[in-house]
């Protein structure tokens, strides 16, 4: 196979996974990241089985297992703390032959950085413009320098500057109606079982506690709010007390234990599915290609799938980059569009876009044995390119 010179724009989870996969395939890869210091957005990432399998195949199995959460069950409570449903995740894990691995974003990023090699990553430099011909692509950097490559992988995130170059128009990020506060707290039995993903739902709001490894829970609070609501860190705890007044004792305990200085507050957006992911030798990957709400926990996993498919397509069409990218687009376009729309639908149901449907969902949870939820998770996982 012909080794290619590949530039990756962005050192997030998608860009680093792509860089590692392409290196494993024998290509020469360099990553440019616009920020001077990497600081992952969000405390943790829920890597479901489809993403874990790809990280395992890229040589990170032992490292991931050592630092990720051991999530064995899942439950929903109402706002008073009454259990609506609780069930084991083991049947799902047996069916897909891989447990989920919730993990701190900073730890995963560090593992990927070390695997790629820091000498292959330049911080504080972004990919600004491109010019292509039949034999390659010229990438103009924010330094004013130009680098020549066989391929540019645009993994520059939800605010991608290169997405417009591929799409042919400015694809607007759309506010999906809710704000998410997230962070991490020490595992404690008065919050949740150390091996259970526990969620409280009611009033179109949600509180979640997920085991993320290192004896910590990843927590988040979701609240439907107008866009542009004031974001004042010193008011986070008081805001949450107000939004969740009267909720169950574990929710009140969690609010008192958070460290506002370590909490991220994010307005949740997504981008309508694109009708193309490739333009010549420029290819979109990760959030640049399919920015989605976090309601299915699949944003990072889909970026990992992108990386795996891109690596395989370049191997299948060795020496013919345009043909490889056309195949990548054919394999990814429908899958990622479907997950963007499913995540949006789940977002709307959870957060009261249609209050009648949200109440119906609460009622369904009270009758849920786990079979339907597990079937939905399995459907997503089994669509992965790596079984």
Model description:
By secondary structure, the protein is an alpha/beta fold. The chain has a single domain (5-173, 270-381), classed as FAD/NAD(P)-binding domain, CATH 3.50.50. The chain contains 12 helices and 18 strands. A 7-stranded mixed β-sheet has the order 5-4-13-14-15-12-16, with helices on both faces. Strands 7-2-1-11-18-17 form a 6-stranded mixed β-sheet. A hairpin with a 2-residue loop joins strand 8 (127-133) and strand 9 (136-141). Helix 1 packs parallel to helix 9.
Q: Can you give keywords for this protein?
A:
single chain; 387 residues; FAD/NAD(P)-binding domain; 6-stranded mixed beta sheet; 12 helices; 18 strands; FAD-bd; monooxygenase
Q: Could you give me the name of the CATH homologous superfamily?
A: FAD/NAD(P)-binding domain
Assigned CATH architecture: 3-Layer(bba) Sandwich
| Main β sheet profile | 7 strands, mixed
Helix coverage percent of residues?
25-40%
Structural domains: how many: 1
